[in-house]
Write a sequence for this structure.
């Protein structure tokens, strides 16, 4: 299963073994394990719920900044009501690797919804 748009891609390939999810934006890509992808999904849902709670109270041009830490992930959403970017940091509890991702406007929202659809369609 894969989704590819201008400047981003999301791929699930269980034949790859341990690192079966790939997220790529612009000129970089990272492979995730299933449990890392699941934790990212849960973090993004939590962040989206926070955004939905305040969205109706925001003026169109009002700047927002939301931060969530849910180990091993940290997420920071910045932008406005109808367009935001997302910075994600992963710190492995196994001390195997750490990385940072940046999803610019409008990639962030599109990629979020595709990750949500991908995870919820599994099983």
């Amino acid at each position: 299963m894969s989704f590819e748009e201008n400047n981003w891609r999301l791929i699930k390939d269980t034949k790859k073994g341990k690192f079966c999810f790939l997220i790529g934006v612009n000129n970089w890509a990272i492979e995730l394990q299933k449990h890392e992808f699941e934790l990212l999904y849960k973090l993004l849902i939590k962040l989206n719920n926070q955004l939905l709670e305040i969205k109706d109270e925001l003026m169109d041009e009002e700047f927002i900044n939301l931060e969530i830490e849910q180990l091993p992930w940290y997420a920071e959403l910045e932008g406005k009501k109808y367009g935001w970017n997302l910075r994600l940091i992963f710190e492995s509890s196994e001390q195997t690797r750490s990385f940072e991702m940046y999803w610019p406007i409008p990639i962030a929202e599109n990629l979020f919804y595709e990750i949500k659809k991908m995870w919820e369609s599994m099983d």
Observations:
- The two ends are 13 Å apart (CA to CA).
- Strands lie at 2-5, 8-12, 21-25, 28-32, 64-70, 73-80, 83-91, 98-103.
- The domain at 33-121 is CATH 2.30.31.10 (Transcriptional Co-activator pc4; Chain A).
- Residues 90 and 96 are 11 Å apart (CA to CA).
